[in-house]
Amino acid sequence: MGLYRRKDSSIWWMSFVVNGKQYQKPTGTSDKKLAENILAKVTTRIVEDKWFEKDLSKEITLKEMIERYDREYTEMKDYYQKARDKTIFKHLYAFFGENVTLEEVNARVGSYQKWREKQVSKKGKSPDSGTIRKELSLLRRMFNVARKQWKWRIMNPVSDIELPKDSKERVRYLDMDEFKRLFVKLDAAEEPWLKPIVIVAIGTGLRQGNLINLLKTEVRLKDKMIVIDSEKMKNDDYFGNPLANVAFETLKDFIENDVTDCPYVFNDNGTKLYDRKVQRAFVRVIRTAEIQDFRFHDLRHCFGSYLRQNGVDLATIAALMNHKDQRMTQRYAHLNVESLRRPIRKLDSALLRFYDVKSQK
């Protein structure tokens, strides 16, 4: 038994053995005297045979879990992701209540989907299955963070339920005419950073948040690559992709001509861009180009769609888009019709030969 400090932590940890099993637990304090008192209490409980790992789900409330996740994770997200999380928190509170324990959440989570399907917004609409899936996915993520990062001894009840399928698999991309109209307006845009960020979005498939937070050090001009650490990516996977020439030349030009000391690739005279500023500028250009139903995120769909239309296989597209689940990539499957025509022509030839044989009999 004893106390120690980890290199990456300022708090004291305690090590002890119960029934032949060794445990390392945080004391939760950087005060050594207090840590010694905590270890002494644990030692007493072990001697009295009263120590056991306690299931915290009966004590911790949903509000405690959400508030901690909000502080440590949601507040670090971009404007739109943050707004989405906070809206989901409100729906979770509306169904479960703020002060329910996690044990009660476990008992009731299976009814959440049916309850949400009956809710009607101010616009008179009910949430679709994709929206409900996102809400339950965030709840599942919070439980996983609590278990794996905070070391709470709880179960994850969302892991045991089947999430609703996403009914809206949107694939909106620019056709040739829209593409030309957009870039005519981008050339005339007052923001010098807008056209480059759109070019790189289409050329890499990166999300808006990743582009805004893209560091100059993450662009390896020598290797013609972008390399981003996993913690900055939506699905927690490392991103390391080669650059198409158009995206590479755009990044190279933008970085080499930036005379500021701003660490971010896309900046406004040395000031970091923020989500709403990019969105407002992009929406203005889309409107002046008279393009309907097109969002910044659809630039990512342009990337996937153009790859597929040019014969790239789905597995490669999944890798380039950093999709953990290749079902996400299936939305682009229908876009390469020409590659399917060749085997159909072969079938035609085979059938014609078959019919010729039949007719000769």
Task: Describe the model.
By secondary structure, this protein is mainly alpha-helical. It folds into 3 domains: 2-53; 58-160, DNA polymerase, domain 1; 176-332, hpI Integrase, Chain A, CATH 1.10.443. 48% of the residues lie in helices and 9% in strands. The chain contains 14 helices and 8 strands. It has helices at 32-47, 62-72, 79-96, 102-108, 112-117, 129-148, 176-187, 194-204, 208-212, 245-256, 275-288, 298-309, 314-320, 337-360; strands at 2-5, 12-18, 21-26, 219-220, 225-228, 239-242, 267-268, 271-272. A 3-stranded antiparallel sheet has the order 1-2-3, covered by helices on one side. Helix 2 (62-72) runs antiparallel to helix 3 and helix 8 (194-204) packs across helix 12 (298-309). The radius of gyration is 27 Å and the shape is globular. The chain starts with a strand and ends with a helix. Residues 169-345 form the Tyr recombinase domain. One of its GO terms (molecular function) is DNA binding. This is Site-specific integrase.
